[in-house]
Fold this protein.
Amino acid sequence: MSRMASVLLSLATVPWLVESAKGQCLYEGRGSLDTPYGAGLPSDGKGVAVSGDWMAVGAPGINDYAGAVYLFVREASAWSHHSTITASDGAEGDWFGGAVALDGPHLVVGRSANQHSDDTAGAAYFFMLQGSNWTELQKVTPSTASENDYFGSAVDLEGEVAVIGAPDAGPEPFGPGSVYFFRFSGTSWVEEQELGSSTPEFDGNYGGSVSLSGDRAAIGAYRPLHGSVDIVAFDGSQWVVEQVLTAAEQQTRDYFGWSVALRDDRLLVGAIGADDTHESQGAAYLFEDNGNTWQRKKRFVSTTPFSLSSFGDSLALGEDIAFIGNRSDGGGAGAAFFLRRIGSQWKILERIGPSDGGQSLGQFADSVAIDGDTLVASSTMGTTFLVEPTSFCLDATPETPAAGQTLTFTTDIGLSSSAALLYLVDINNIPLFERLFLGQFDAQGMWSVDITVPPGLWFLTMQFQTLGRKPDGKLAFSNAVEVRF
């Protein structure tokens, strides 16, 4: 019998259930970055991307909507403004910076135009890091460009492949939409293929959201009547549709496909108008590829719901973490919801908002991005917030196991290959310090312990913590997980 089981069995002998309560342990705000003009300019932070030690923040509303992109660099763990880039042929109403994507030495910026522009066909600009400066390499327009296409409304970039959406492309205004794939030749970006919707419709918004991962892409088409997402793959010569994803319960104006985030065999899809406990509060859907087909795994909704809050407006997906933006949360203040994969399950663990509640900033998390352990959420009023890990975190699953089931304690964000200890630290608000297990963080900084839940606990509340070293080598405790019997 394990030490944990011995301790529990000594306390009671009746059936029990467990619930998990998590402290604010995972991520927290690490400060904010104002644009060079300070906070308060509308439409600053409309797009955000981060890669390594570089961050790009779009500001399409400045200079009479000509737009710009602010570049920040991280040096010695501190971020600072590096430079501001604009289009070489920028003009009023261009909306340059409405969409940005960054990967390594490559940056693509969408210039989709808005109501102030005479050029609604759109364009995109590729920049390249040369030395310590970003240089405009090329402006691209699609081979089938026409007025009101709004090419550049959505962009993504991975390695030497880019995908750019033109959600109104077609023979007339409010067409079905298209996406265009570009590939870097070593000296320039070359259009590889135009791809239209597998189910084209008037006002289809195909290409209104895009996401790349390897040789696959997710293309959102947030139609007013029934949205969808195409999973497309490169077969060595062309991009082809593998599968079309929808939400079975979606209704008119759910806008399924409003946002997409693809990472390997996982996909998040936003539906900002979906109903749940409140009308049009929004939802996000998780899909996974099982090797043969993409299957829906979970539907997420806000933990602080209200009508018309736009949950799922922006998405970012990492290896085991995710960000869901909710720009109208709190009456327009905005919030981002942090998710983590624990074992095979994804859970919302934290709601993160700006430090002042967002009332003076507006629409926090209008755009979100993840690179490694760095999470970024931007406000449309010119401030970008950094959210980074502060300590490792303990989680207990499942949340309500019955006697005889396996209860798993998982601790992550620890120092690889270092020792970890699980302690029982409180029973019914009476502090104690009982060591239960000794283990070791793996190469990914994670440690798990399984126990079989014994019968016989009643009216008890216990708290557990892990003691170990963080990635920086400092000894610390995790959050406390509360288990209620």
About this structure: The longest strand covers residues 430-440.
